What does this fold into?
Amino acid sequence: MSAPLRSTGGFRGFVLGIETSCDDTACAVLDREGRVLSSQVSSQLEVHRAFGGVVPEAASREHLRNWPAVSEAALAEAGIGWPDIGAVAATRGPGLVGSLLVGLSLGKAISYSLGAPFLAVHHLEGHLFSPLLRWGGASLPVPESMLGLVVSGGHTSLLDVDKATGAVTSLAETRDDAVGEAFDKVGRRLGLPFPGGAEVDRLAELGDPSVWRFGTARISSNELAFSYSGLKSQALRALGEIETRTEIPRSALEGDDAAWPREVLDLLAGFRHAAVAQLIKRLDRLRDERPVARLSVSGGVAANRLLRREVTAWGERRGVEVMLVPLRFSGDNAAMIAHAGLLRLRMGDADDPRSADAESRIPFAAGVL
Ligand code: KG4
Ligand code: ZN
It folds into this structure.
């Protein structure tokens, strides 16, 4: 069988997506219209929880261990077999290099053996276009003009998409911590299971955001850059102070919401309010500078209840169409990787599986992804 080489134009069959950039082993199948036929995500959290974070070496091993079951489940759910795969897309980075190498190598081998085109996808590109995904329906077309806010445990990015070339430009990044990282550190300080972002969000709903006032990041007024380490430190310090006078009962951590000290819930509400307010402030700044027709909002933190409410209201206020990622595609998944690969295939693009490489960090070359 001859090896698939760079660029192919068309392809037959279905797109297989593979995502192993961090601790989730994910595999998905999309059809040519971008309809998600299956999206399997196998979490390794039980393995990493005892360490309070992801252990890279363990993550790589778990990906290898999980892959057979995850991929078979994705094919079975889609009702197809290996020969039906017409293209393969796998995450090339950024992420944990050992983890990336597992998924990328599997993708390369599958593409090579099936003679199917291969796409090595940037993780952020996957998130950026994920609001176009529809469960059970064809994906929405890429709009003429679109900006993207990607908020996750590893990224806080404002991106611009050039539809004609597919080029993605970064308009702003975080200077220090990602917004999801700040949520996770606060969750960890409270003793919540890793990653604590979703639980901090849920508990923040029970508190009063006006009790604690957090300072805003010191970034000059015309800049778009994000910064979360200051807010994180303020929240951790405040939690330390509360703990000197109030003990968090074990029952609170075991799910009894009524047992949480009011002070803690109010602090979480204040922290979440400040975290989301920074995002909205940057969007306002950007909108003051230029017209924005559409904004896609994606990444794990796009599941945040307050962010979803606030960014929707912002869009209505500022005349911007806001496209929120469907909740089931907000966290890391392989449907978004297959989808980003499909978009590149439609532009006649593909990578050589013999040379595509995994990269833990992918700097924006002159601002382009
Ligand atoms: O996109 P994702 O699954 O992985 C990365 O690419 O990082 O995002 C995971 C991040 C974690 O930091 C997690 O705590 C956070 O998203 N997260 C949330 C919520 N749900 C997940 N953060 C705030 N509010 C949530 N509801
Ligand atoms: Zn992600």
In short: The beta strands are 14-19, 24-30, 36-43, 85-93, 118-122, 145-151, 156-162, 168-172, 294-298, 321-324.
